[in-house]
Structures are given as structure tokens and as C-alpha cells.
């Protein structure tokens, strides 16, 4: 065996070892992320079923107290009314936090229903028009559904908070052996290279999560010209 053959074999062995390490790294990364999502689910349910239920009971008791109070003195009734308003606001904030942590609709009804809820919620909160187009999809496991939901959620949050977009288009489709997700807005835009290199957790977090599933993130845009976030992820990511 000459030196060239030995060198080629060594190179091939090194390449195979790197590929094994890469697969193991991605597997471990997905496992860590799954634990985080499971914890989000647990906290969301505790907020909804524990804190939320207690606040509901408290609000009911305050209503009973308000109904039993005499008309005078007015100051006492005002105090109860203020307590009722605070309780109602806290209850609504708790429910919203629970939904943002892990919307039950994602586990109960699946990705399409969760995306339609997300788009409707973001549109109501930001005032922007959000169009959603979902083409026929194959059956997706829970991890892929969560990945696509989180990428969409992050992109819509960016469009509302940082880009001040008035119109956002979301499209999810199958392209051969992969899924393609595009979120395009008409907001302030940015330099894609600077945005990814800024060290922020939003776009960088999306890119890293997609990598764990063999996916890729592409940005296209410019300052003042909106931003298009494109994600491709293989259906067979193992």
C-alpha cells in the first residue's frame, strides 16, 4: 500500500468520524431542546391549571363580596372594583403567558391549527395584517411541529417588535424531501449578515435550532426594504 492510498484511507476515516460526531452532537442538542420544551409545557399547564384556576376563584369571590356590599361608603366599593380589575388583568396575563410558553393547541390539534392561532394572535396584538398559506403537508412528528412553530413565532415577533411591519406573509409547504417555511415582512429590514452576526438570540437561535435538525436558515433583505426569513428542514432529520 503506497502513501497516497494510506493518506486517502486516513482522510476517509477522519471524515467518517467527524460525521459520526456531528450526528451525535445534533442528537444531544435535540434531546436538550426537547427537555426544555417539556419543561415549558409543564410550567404552562401549572400556570393555566394552578395559578389561573386560583385567580378565577378569587375573581368569583370578589364579585360575591362586591354584590354583598352596601352602596355606602363608596370608597369601599371602589377598592373592591380596583381589586376586581387587577385580578382580571392578572388572570389574562397569566393565561397569555401560559399560551406563549407552550400553546395547548399545538399538542392537542397539531401544527396547522397552532399556526392559525399564532397568526391570529400576533395580528391582533400588533395590528399588522398577517397572511398564512399552508399547503398539503405529510404527517409530521412532534419535534418537527414544535421546530416549525417556534421558528414562525420568533420571526413574527421580530416583524412586530423590531421591524414594525404592517404586512407579513407566512407560507409553509413541502418541497421534495424537505419542508420550506417563508416569513416575509414589509418592515424596516436589516443587513442579513449583520443581523446574524450581532449575537442576538432571535435569529441566531432560529439558525441553531434548525441546524440540530439538519436544516438551514436564509435571510434576504436590506435596510428599509423588509426581510424574508426562509427555513428549510429535511423530513428525515435523524
Sequence-ordered SSE layout with sheet pairings:
Blueprint: H1 3-68, H2 74-101, H3 104-108, H4 111-126, E1 129-134, H5 142-161, E2 167-175, E3 178-185, H6 192-197, H7 201-212, E4 216-221, E5 227-234
Parallel strand pairs: 1-2
Antiparallel strand pairs: 2-3, 3-5, 4-5
Helix pairs in contact: 1-2, 4-5, 5-7
Descriptive keywords:
5 strands, elongated, single chain, 7 helices
Strand proportion, as a percent range, falls in: 15-25%
Number of helices: 7
Radius of gyration using CA atoms only: 24 Å
The termini sit apart by 36 Å
Query: Largest sheet, described in full?
Result: 5 strands, mixed
Helix-residue proportion: 55-70%
Structural class: alpha+beta
Unreliable segments of 5+ consecutive residues: none
Overall pLDDT:
90
Q: Order of SSEs, N→C? A: HHHHEHEEHHEE
Question: How many strands?
Answer: 5
Describe the overall structure:
- The protein has 238 residues and is of the alpha+beta class.
- It is 64% helix and 16% strand.
- The chain has helices at residues 3-68, 74-101, 104-108, 111-126, 142-161, 192-197, 201-212; strands at 129-134, 167-175, 178-185, 216-221, 227-234.
- Strand 1 (129-134), helix 5 (142-161) and strand 2 (167-175) form a beta-alpha-beta unit.
- Helix 1 runs antiparallel to helix 2, helix 4 packs parallel to helix 5 and helix 5 (142-161) packs antiparallel against helix 7 (201-212).
- The two termini are 36 Å apart.
Amino acid at each position: 500500500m503506497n502513501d497516497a492510498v494510506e493518506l486517502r484511507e486516513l482522510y476517509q476515516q477522519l471524515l467518517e468520524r467527524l460525521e459520526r460526531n456531528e450526528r451525535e452532537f445534533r442528537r444531544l442538542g435535540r434531546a436538550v431542546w426537547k427537555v426544555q420544551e417539556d419543561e415549558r409545557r409543564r410550567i404552562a399547564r401549572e400556570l393555566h391549571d394552578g395559578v389561573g384556576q386560583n385567580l378565577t376563584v378569587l375573581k368569583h369571590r370578589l364579585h360575591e363580596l362586591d354584590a354583598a356590599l352596601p352602596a355606602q361608603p363608596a370608597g369601599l366599593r371602589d377598592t373592591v372594583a380596583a381589586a376586581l380589575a387587577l385580578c382580571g388583568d392578572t388572570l389574562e396575563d397569566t393565561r397569555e403567558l401560559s399560551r406563549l410558553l407552550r400553546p395547548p393547541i399545538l399538542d392537542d390539534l397539531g401544527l396547522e391549527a397552532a399556526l392559525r392561532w399564532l397568526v391570529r394572535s400576533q395580528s391582533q396584538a400588533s395590528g399588522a395584517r398577517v397572511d398564512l398559506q399552508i399547503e398539503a403537508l405529510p404527517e409530521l412528528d412532534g419535534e418537527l411541529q414544535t421546530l416549525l412553530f417556534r421558528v414562525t413565532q420568533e420571526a413574527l415577533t421580530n416583524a412586530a417588535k423590531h421591524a414594525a411591519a404592517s404586512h407579513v406573509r407566512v407560507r409553509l409547504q413541502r418541497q421534495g424531501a424537505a419542508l420550506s417555511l417563508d416569513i416575509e415582512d414589509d418592515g424596516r429590514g436589516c443587513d442579513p449578515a449583520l443581523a446574524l452576526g450581532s449575537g442576538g438570540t432571535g435569529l441566531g437561535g432560529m439558525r441553531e435550532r434548525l441546524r440540530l435538525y439538519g436544516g438551514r436558515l436564509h435571510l434576504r433583505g436590506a435596510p428599509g426594504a423588509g426581510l424574508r426569513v426562509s427555513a428549510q428542514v429535511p423530513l428525515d432529520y435523524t
